[in-house]
TrEMBL record:
Keywords: Heme, Iron, Metal-binding, Transport. GO terms for molecular function: heme binding; metal ion binding; oxygen binding; oxygen carrier activity. This is Unannotated protein. Signal peptide: none annotated. The keyword Disulfide bond does not apply. Belongs to the truncated hemoglobin family. Group II subfamily. Pfam families: Bac_globin.
Amino acid sequence: MSDTTGQPAAQTPYERFGGHAFFERIVHAFYEQVALDPVMRPMYPEGDLTAAEDRLRMFLEQYWGGPTTYGEVRGHPRLRMRHADFAIDADARDRWLHHMAGAVQQESLPEADEAELWGYLVSAAYAMQNIPDDPADAPGIHRARE
Ligand code: HEM
């Protein structure tokens, strides 16, 4: 593809990462782990995770410049609002990220692409946390006693 300047049209991250097949693979690998996770699995009300898998895949495809099916089917993402009913503490957030890291690491993205994708996923997961960290986990203050 080329634009009117004769330069190749800039690829979207969606295309660079590997298009539909890429997102299908990472979201599927992610949900395989969610299905086995004793904290995360009970959060999903539906017995079958297929519909949730489709929603996350469509959302990520749209976010990275691919088809806009998510918006057509679900409307504005409002992701924080849609997560409000789920108790997402630091543990749930880290479990989400752990499963996603496993899925992304199975791919062989160039380093810069992987860093771009991962940076987004980390900040999105932190933004979705809706139960604050426990102040009991804060570092203590240790003064050397004379
Ligand atoms: C931080 C930990 C997270 C937990 C525990 C969590 C859990 C859930 C649960 C239980 C659902 C409901 C299943 C469904 O009906 O689709 C859901 C939906 C969804 N989540 Fe998460 N989520 C987390 C983070 C994220 C992040 C970081 C993203 C995006 C990058 C995301 C994107 C979505 C999307 C797109 C939906 C479907 C929304 C809709 O259209 O109804 N989630 N999540």
